[in-house]
Amino acid sequence: MRQPTLRRAVLSLVALLGVLPILAGLWQSLRASFGILPALGATTLSPAPWGQLMQLPGLTTSLALTLTTGLGATLIAFVLVVALCAARADRAPVPPRLLAPFLAAPHAAMAIGLAFLIAPSGWIARALAQVLGWSTPPLWITVNDPHGFALILGLVIKEVPFLLLVTLSALSQIPLRQSLITGRALGYGAGALWLKLVLPQIWPLIRLPLMVVLAYALSNVDMALILGPATPPTLAVLLARLFSDPDTAKLLPASAGAILQALLVLASFAALWATARLTGWAGRIWLRKGTRGPHSALGPLPALTATALLALGALSMAALLVWSLAWRWPFPRLAPESWSLSAWDTSTAPLTTTLLLALTTTLLSTLLAVAWLEGEDRARRRTPWAEALIYLPLLVPQISFLYGLNILFLRIGISGGMGAVIWAQTLFVFPYVMLTLSAPWRALDPRLTRTAAALGAGPWRQLIAVKLPALLRPLLTAAAIGVAVSVAQYLPTLFMGAGRIATLTTEAVTLASGSDRRITGATATLQAALPLLAYLIAFALPALVHRNRRALNGGHTAWA
Amino acid sequence: MRLPFAATALALTLSATPALADWSETLAAARGQTVYFNAWGGDARTNAFIDWVGQQTEARFGVSVQQVKLSDTAEAVTRVLSEKAAGQDSDGSVDLIWINGPNFLAMKAQGLLHGPFVSDLPNARYLDLTTGSAATTDFTVPVEGMESPWRLAKFVFVTDSARVTTPPTSMAAFADWAAAHPGRMTHPDASNFMGATFLKQALVELAPDPSALQAPVTDATYATQTAPLWDWYETLRPNLWRQGTAFPENQSVQQQMLNDAEIDIAMSFDPASTAAAIDQGLLPDTARVFVPEGGTIGNVSFVAIPYNAAHSAGAEVVANFLLAPETQAHMQNIEVLGSFSVLDPAKLDDTARAAFDALPSAPALPTLADLGPTLLEPHPSWTTRLTEDWARRITR
Fold this sequence. Notes:
The structure holds 2 protein chains of 2 kinds.
Chain A: H1 5-33, H2 48-55, H3 59-87, H4 96-104, H5 107-118, H6 123-132, H7 149-171, H8 176-185, H9 190-219, H10 222-227, H11 235-243, H12 251-289, H13 301-324, E1 326-328, E2 338-339, H14 349-379, H15 384-390, H16 392-395, H17 398-411, H18 418-443, H19 446-454, H20 459-470, H21 472-488, H22 491-496, H23 504-512, H24 517-545, H25 550-553
Chain B: H1 2-16, H2 18-30, E1 34-40, H3 44-61, E2 64-70, H4 74-85, E3 96-99, H5 102-109, E4 137-138, E5 141-142, E6 147-154, E7 156-160, H6 171-180, H7 193-206, H8 219-236, H9 251-259, E8 265-268, H10 273-279, E9 287-290, E10 296-304, H11 312-322, H12 325-332, H13 350-357, E11 374-375, H14 380-394
Parallel strand pairs in B: 1-2, 1-3, 10-11
Antiparallel strand pairs in B: 3-10, 4-5, 6-10, 7-8, 7-9
Helix pairs in contact in B: 2-11, 3-11, 6-8, 7-8, 7-14
Domain ABC transmembrane type-1 (chain A): 59-272, 351-545
Transmembrane segments (chain A): 65-87, 108-129, 149-171, 251-276, 297-329, 349-373, 394-414, 420-441, 470-491, 524-545
Family (chain A): Belongs to the binding-protein-dependent transport system permease family.
């Protein structure tokens, strides 16, 4: 029996509260990019803002930088993850548990830590100074280097764990063992086997997360601001500056830039699609030729690279913690000269607000995701076009629609309150929760619900008594990701909260514009600790609840 | 019975004074309001001072203050503008903004400000409000009562006296100093107000006719007045940190670089900030302030109220409290904020003057005499042209 009611209700809700605001925001930006922004008294349709945008000094360099850092970081992260998995095809290359801290750490916090690590006066240089006897920092060009290498490094450190986790999840959804056994029996070498048999199977499952990574790498503001080049910066940073220019007329070219940013991301998606198509076509020829490839494994290079990256990430987080406990820490000392807890002696209001927002948006998003997936089960059909829409907030650059969206929120009179921030954050939390939960949900053994139905349980009882308990681990993992995403939101919290809603992230970014690394360290540590706590609960609670349910506790879900 | 009559007459006269009558109405309307004070939040001491102001106004007038910490003042301008875009002409989210210069000009020109209100404030009597005085002009733009002053800003350089014993004594001398110490100095990006001020400071010293800078810029005056500046800058730039191809985001990042010993010279718009930073462990004990012999650019920081502020009465009460002599003396205390007062010393009574005289000092805190003369800010249009020109020269 098909029951489409729930599915229809959830679909309309997502369309009304999720898709419409983004389209409205984009529409406002588009209008402004052609000279229509009544608040400024601009009411004549004209392409002049585009002309002003093109005249900005360094725009071409800026665009080139955006493309090289965004595409470069995504490509490196993807190749590394594929190489890691291919090198150790039959088991997880890194225990997923170890990845949690890297997923939990917000981008801005990681960037601040990394900036200290690699700066000419940073930890690495201080270690060298001990040996080489430097008394002043070397003239290195590391952070904010003109080619954006530091930014690429930061993005790769942050995206590799995410892509790795997604790939491991995808691997758990395909008949991996059978593929490997068949491949080996046919005499394929490890690398060739992975590329020929495994990658084509998981590609449809990891394509969307890869697009999310690509969109983020091309349009992020926080990491690019801290690690990226400055004269000129990447397009997103250039736009963030234009949007906050005292000359309000700059809002028009800024809006044109916002549309350009969206087009840039769209073009990159098209390029990704075309590359995938071409590779698939060429790969089929390669496959038919039947070459078995070398038998030797890929060697230790991928694992070494990944370990080095994770070590840099871990040191970055450690640097933040040490700074938060320091009083004076001058160059070239490896450890602070004097210690103090004063950085931790701050108001607890941002912490409370952050917690409240994280719990509310995560609860809403998880409920909505369960409703969506359950609606799908009951209607016995999936709606690919609607699924694509869920991910719209992750694929459209934030800066392209947030300004317009704020005007919309003001019109309906909800800007500046908790409600507006919860709504805006949920736009971003929900897709991540869906991304995490949908695969294990759909992979749930259908015999469980069939048995329940045969025993006379109705749809609600099947959901509450069978599905949700069996899916406790993925549900909690999705919720933990939700918490991490909510905690990390900067632009939506700032724009929709009219600056009045202070969270750990808005505080951390504001403080990063000040000079006190110690307070920044304390805030960023807290900012990373909250999601980490959520991950710990997500790992510990199912282990406790299911301590005598081996099948639910033994790693059968993607995230075990 | 002459005396009671005189007292009654005096009381009648007082209540008949419109400003004071209005003020008691303002105080009544303000009671119970929460003022959202939008102020740059990058300085922990300023944040703590604003917190103190809120406690005082809460206790005295029943007006509480909530600081909205901005990373850039233009955020508040954009917010008011988007409220106007959405037709929200009352009950706006911004009640009071710490503002000056180009942001003030933008809001004034767009009609985004409430006022004039300064002459309604009882404590405005301690200000020198004669035309052309520092409290009535903001970057040469007439204030016309649309914003109320609260602290003095004066451009200063900071160095570590343990590494630099003879800092440059004029802007021209910076080029020689940098040639002798390549890579050891820089300035914030000119899109930041501190970077722009560094260029303006050099412009004021190097321009053939500094008085031309007080009028709006024209193509002709720009060409003649800035030619020596750019010659000087092209000599200086190759010897800047990273050969002048990259610049710190703002003065706070620059201060951190000084603390990290990556550079030897930083800058600030607050002469007391160095002593404060030493006190907080953010600079070495040997950090000192210095200024070129000809003096430096100074300006006044103001607070303004947006046209659609939800709590304009409360905002006026806070603006007035900021001008009270005891508030200004508390603010000038190096242990609190150390910012110089905006009040006219000649208009203070003896108790107020004594309060200022009794303030403590610190080794890194300069006296007013150390700071030399205060030079006038050029008209804002010069800033815009300078920073655009700079961006064009710097950008690859």
